């Protein structure tokens, strides 16, 4: 291991778990599992890309340690996060003798993590599971906090559960094989944490854009660790998104979901849509007198330095607002937005005027 891995603990009473974050620490995979489970049967769920890159080898390491291993591979891409693929996985697991002593290991990006976590949460009413996230988005966001689920046609993440893993093993070295666009999309969520929770972290990111763009391992290890700490802090206080606190993680997301839906989930990656959505949210906050215009300029400069898009896609504004009204955060038909009042602090703001939302879509 190039550098000592660090551990971030997610404190959730008997559902507490460790996130081990390092560089080159996939070598710790077997002991990481062994320290946390007595099981000897692992169902590894991965996708076609990550299988050949990492999952196949990790499965071999477990088999060498006398585990019974079943490796289930789904097609790479969002389309696999659906009821048909989940049902195929349940059937295969049943046929292969999976029982309550078995564990599920998700090795892949957010699609694999959400799908495998959902299958784990539901098979025999709940199997223990581990996450080995391999995209930046999964390392800083989707593998932490226990939201698992699948999409319905036309309704993203509509069926799911809160099901915490037994542990999360993060190796930032795997990010070296990630395509540039996917890597940058993950950076949008990284910037989000600075804006919503930690002004010092935002300033750190501003200073480290070159190292981040070069995927410097030690910088990334710290970046992922800080994001996981910040997300863990929110999840510990509002695991099931009941108080509104966890909703702060959705900064920029009301806009982003509308942009993604308007582009039929093909034009923009989620992180790209979040980057543009954060710009709209910053402009909305400025219109409502919550921040000055310099706030949006500062956020824009960082997003652009990290190679992220900031221009609103060319859709009719009223169509976008209609799509926003389908967002899970809508409260009795009223639009709600997570908006900053200073760097490192946001609030859930209710009853925002449609005129202001329409105006915020356009940069002046
Ligand atoms: P993804 O899982 O589709 O991965 C993106 C692509 O990168 C895939 O083609 C994958 O095969 C490939 N890939 C993964 N790791 C790689 C590696 N190391 N090297 C090369 N290629 C690699 O996409 P994603 O962006 O990781 O996740 C998106 C999903 O996450 C969405 O479904 C979203 O809803 C979900 N999500 C969930 C939460 C949550 O809290 N549960 C939070 C945010 C997003
Ligand atoms: N990604 C938002 C959440 O985990 O709540």
Describe the structure.
The protein has 364 residues and is of the alpha/beta class. It folds into two domains: 176 residues, Rossmann fold (3-Layer(aba) Sandwich), CATH 3.40.50; 181 residues, Up-down Bundle (Dehydroquinate synthase-like, alpha domain). It has 14 helices and eleven strands. A seven-stranded mixed beta sheet has the order 1-2-9-6-5-3-4, sandwiched between helices. It has a two-stranded antiparallel sheet with strand order 7-8. β5, α4 and β6 form a beta-alpha-beta unit. α10 crosses α13 and α11 packs antiparallel against α12. The longest helix has 21 residues. It is globular. Bound molecules: nicotinamide-adenine-dinucleotide (NAD) and glycine.
Give the H and E element order.
EEHEHEHEHEHEEEHHHHHHHHEEH
CATH fold-level topology of the largest domain? Dehydroquinate synthase-like, alpha domain
CATH architecture of the largest domain: Up-down Bundle
Q: Largest sheet, described in full? A: 7 strands, mixed
**Are any ligands bound, and if so which?**
nicotinamide-adenine-dinucleotide, glycine
In terms of DSSP E residues, the strand content is 15-25%
Count of separate structural domains: 2
Shape: globular
Assigned CATH class of the largest domain: Mainly Alpha
User: What is the percent of helical residues?
Assistant: 40-55%
- The radius of gyration computed from the alpha-carbon positions, rounded to a whole number of angstroms, is 20 Å
Average predicted confidence as pLDDT: 95
What's the total number of strands? 11
CATH superfamily of the largest domain: Dehydroquinate synthase-like - alpha domain
Give the termini distance in whole angstroms: 49 Å
**Low-confidence parts, pLDDT < 50 over ≥5 residues?**
none
> Could you say which structural class the secondary elements and strand pairing correspond to?
alpha/beta
